[in-house]
Design goal:
Blueprint lengths: L2 H22 L13 E6 L2 E7 L5 H12 L10 E3 L3 E4 L37 E4 L13 E4 L12 E7 L1 H6 L6 E7 L1
Antiparallel strand pairs: 1-2, 1-8, 2-7, 3-4, 4-6, 5-6, 5-7
């Protein structure tokens, strides 16, 4: 074998290994095992997509999908945006800029009535979970948030029902008052 043949074989082996390694890594848009519908959030800063977990949180996922299909979230503003913590939406009063001091206090008006908290889904960066007022997670209504960093301190307290699969850079840029132009569902 000549040096150029050996070099070509080594490059092919390295490239082939890289291709195999790349094939083993799931793409950003590939859904996790057991994931359900994908939610698309078209925000003022770009698009965020997250998968849902109907096996672990069936009533929570059903509620959020129901509200999306009723256009409940369209035109709302992110009423909470804390860098390296969370961005949150779900208060219909956030459509009114004059009500900014009251944002985060209103919702759909009917609690889900169950806390579907599981040890399987954690508050990792990009987790999507239900917010609620007070101390009872069964009172979660329409507010949901995206974690901007790993937050194990939230595990066991809130229902994680999804995970961002594309658009985390968009979530990182969101600020209080940024609009959710449209929420939709990809089945």
């Amino acid at each position: 074998m000549t040096r150029s043949t050996i070099r070509a074989a080594a490059v092919a082996a390295v490239c082939g290994g890289a291709l195999l390694a790349a094939a083993a890594i799931p793409s950003a848009q590939q859904k996790s095992p057991g994931a359900g519908a994908i939610v698309v959030l078209d925000t003022a800063k770009g698009v965020i997509e997250f998968e849902t977990y109907p096996e672990e949180a069936p009533k929570t996922v059903a509620r959020v999908l129901e509200l999306i299909r009723k256009n409940f979230y369209n035109g709302q503003r992110f009423h909470r945006a804390e860098p390296k913590f969370v961005v949150q939406i779900g208060d219909p009063q956030s459509r009114n800029m004059q009500m900014i001091d009251w944002w985060g206090r209103s919702g759909f008006g009917k609690p889900i009535g169950v806390a579907e908290i599981t040890k399987k889904r954690r508050h990792v960066r990009g987790a999507v979970a239900m917010g609620y007022a007070g101390t009872d997670p069964k009172m979660a209504d329409s507010h949901f948030y995206i974690t901007l960093a790993n937050r194990p301190d939230l595990d066991g307290r809130y229902t994680v029902f999804g995970r961002v699969i594309t658009g985390m850079a968009v979530a990182d840029r969101l600020q209080k008052g940024d609009m959710l132009k449209k929420a939709s569902v990809k089945e």
